[in-house]
Amino acid sequence: MTPTDVHNTSSHSNLYTAIIFDLGDVLFTWSLSSNPPLPEKLLRRILSCSHWFEYEKGNINEAEVYSRVAKDFLVDPAAVKDTLQVAQDSLQSNTKMLEVIQELKEAGLMIYAMSNISAPSWEILERKATPSQWALFDHVFTSASAHQRKPNLGFFRHVIERTGIDPSRTILVDDKLENVLTARSFGMHGIIFDNESKVIKDLKNLCYDPVLRGKRFLTSHKKNLKTVTSNGIEFMDDYSQLIILLATGDDSLVDYVKSPGQFNVFPDGTLFTTEVYPNDLDTTAIGLTVTDHVDVGTKHKIMDEMLEYRDSDAIIQVYFDHSRPRIDPVICINVLNLFYENGRGHELPETLDWVEQVLTHRAYISGTTYYIGADVFLFFLSRLLQTSAEVRRRLGSIFKERVIERFGVEGDSLSLSARIIAATVAGVIDERALKNLLSMQCEDGSWDNSWFWKWGMSSIMAKNDGVTTALAIWPIEEVQSLRKEQSETNGCTQNALPRNQGGIGHIQSWLDRGTVRGPKIPQITEEWEYADCAWEMMESITTTPKLYLR
Predict the structure, then answer these.
(1) In 3D, which of 311, 437, 475, 456 has the Cα closest to residue 371?
(2) What average pLDDT does range 524-545 have in this prediction?
């Protein structure tokens, strides 16, 4: 990591500037030989008794503590001393954690240590790491020098006063809950050191820029962002590549077949079958809205072809194949998005009616035939609401209700990302979902293990870490932009309105970032109090106003 990797965005409520590490059982570990003078369990009991606590605070000397614990535990004082010596001889530094600390230090964070340790034990511990490793710490606070020990409040006050740290911008890493609890009571972010890999992941997620890390993951795997099935098959598919393109707008990351007409999920048209897999309306609709290699005339020709694939209820179908009569509301939404984007939404009224029924009656709550989870339905519908002011006026209110209903529901990375994106379109922020999403970022910068779509009625599911990562970056950036607008604008942002009301700052942020396609739209002003008003005004400017998150 470099200094630029340190968290420098507004996606967290705090920007952490300091970290305090415990030493024993965090940065240094010990163990006893097979035949120590005293068993390890007994030694740990001795190290947790009140006499030892007084010794660690420097209130009694070494001879006195051995005498007291020998009397209380009915053991020989020499046995206590010899057993402790064996433990001290076994001390080893945690190389991996020290490497992480070096990265954090180089990224600009202040690094401190805070340890319950006696003066004689500290002299021994100092020799267990190199001078360059100790130099990583801006200061090491010991209980012996402070005459206080964790979890006592006084020790924490001592460290805060000596360093001048802001507790709300400080992280404590300690293996004991009681110490973490006290740190949290001062406003620090406490991490219990119970799993090294998880602790490292948490530190990176708290201290480094999630967007930058996510983008680096995508770049390092560009054109090789593969899909994996629930039965372990890894492959490249055009659908996932197009979703990554939709989320990022970066063509250099993806590798897909630039079809001159209809699109297919699979580059060669086959997978899991000996027969040719038919072209589908879903991949085609997304492909025609996110790529630029198909001319307008061809697009309209393909839309004409799509109209040939409606069922007896006039609902748009999944495949360009009459022998496979399937419908899915998410796929209907994506086709509607294509049609409305090209001024032809009115040609699919029955399909829109059905989507409205699915939304109104929460038919999507368990996912759909081809898509996993309720939030994905709301995400794709949010695209349609941005494309069409007509659809937004018709469905915007119930859409917002359905999105807010999802707040607090547990979900994987992809579900949370989809929900946050849908929420920003509704003019609200799901703070809990955002916090959980940020905590789910992996050590390599990706977000993973989120099933996205499936093969119809089969049990085979598919996931793509590139898709999940790209869709996670998207809402984080959207929320950052929305918050920036809120902080810079007076009276016409969500800060001036209850968060469950769609303030105009959200729409203005789309305009300011140049994400409007079509005629230039004037600046939204304070008199346009709510988002719906803004949409109505925009419709009066252009017959087909098109707003996109991407």
Answers:
(1) 456
(2) 37
